[in-house]
Protein: non-specific serine/threonine protein kinase
Organism: Chrysemys picta bellii
Amino acid sequence: MVKLVPEMSLNQPAVDCFPYSRMLALLVEVMTDLIKHGCERIEQTIKASGSRLCSYAERVAFLMDRSKNPDNSPQPPTPTDNINLGPSANPNAKPTDFDFLKVIGKGSFGKVLLAKRKSDGMSYAVKVLQKKSILKKKEQTHIMAERNVLLKNVKHPFLVGLHYSFQTSEKLYFVLDYVNGGELFFHLQRERCFREPRARFYAAEVASAVGYLHSLNIIYRDLKPENILLDCQGHIVLTDFGLCKEGMEPEETTSTFCGTPEYLAPEVLRKQPYDRTVDWWCLGAVLYEMLFGLPPFYSRDVSQMYDNILHQPLQIQGTKTMAACDILQGLLHKDQKRRLGAKMDFLEIKNHVFFSPINWDDLYHKRITPPFNPNVSGPADLRHFDPEFTQEAVSNSITRTPDLAASCSSASDAFLGFSYAPTDEDFQVFK
């Protein structure tokens, strides 16, 4: 009120300064301003909820919530809608094929569970999603996009692989690689930062994965330590493809405001058209965090952090090599047209002097020994997962759901064709 009426004394009661008619008019003005700007402020709050101001559990839940991505928002589904998510049905798969052992992740649509397949004892991470929640938030198109990306990942060693998927009348099931070396975020929290050779190794494997996605005309858009896992040997595995944008040719742009505050590129914050170079900005932010312990423009005040990203110069402190400083300056260039990777994409990244110690062919074929071994004793070793998840009881409803045949006559026909099973040869290449 003082901002709107600066001549008002802070010590005067409002009723002494205004007749009731003026107070009513002022109230209408305030409410009009709130309605006018409310959507934008709510959007900023939602985007900021993924920041480090939230708890670990809140961040994981936010990451798995696909409602933050408005790309290609579909119309509300009708009972006859049919979203075909794949050519190869696997009608024989069902929840009772698995023993669901532990919850290892949670989100607004469902959970991720460690599961052991009864037929052979193999361990998988099974992502179980509630159809009603997906349909209510109109997210079936994004589930399809995530699954489409997963189907292409079987050809790359640093992307999580989809073994197969199936559905019941109420739920969708992604059967994924089980990776229990922990999130990069977990290890950064514990160690604060990494030495340059270790950071270079992780950055190289991440760049290889992102470069592969770009070769498929896919922008990842949500690169951060929480989405980078370590396998049992210490190699990285990129996961969570819900914000990916498909069909992005080299010169094509999009303008959806999405991502996580600490890692948003300036052009995204300005709501300007952006291209695949947003992923290289994020790589720079992750590399910076690995070397220094915090994202490059970090502030607990999200508005201040946005201002830092847009206007403040990059601060590089300490005794880092010239190569490290140079690649950070290149990846975190505020002008996307001058950013490292803007001309030749992944080729520019891999040819930078910072990566000169890396033999990229050896890296791709996992012939380089990782600088850190998670030392997991086996699939049941859950010490790199958040106890808040692993201590939760597994719901009986996970396996009590009706079988696939029941789904064909329900409103869940929106997911008809979701079931998929790749050939065994696909997973013998790198897995």
Summary: The chain has two domains: 56-179+378-428, 184-364.
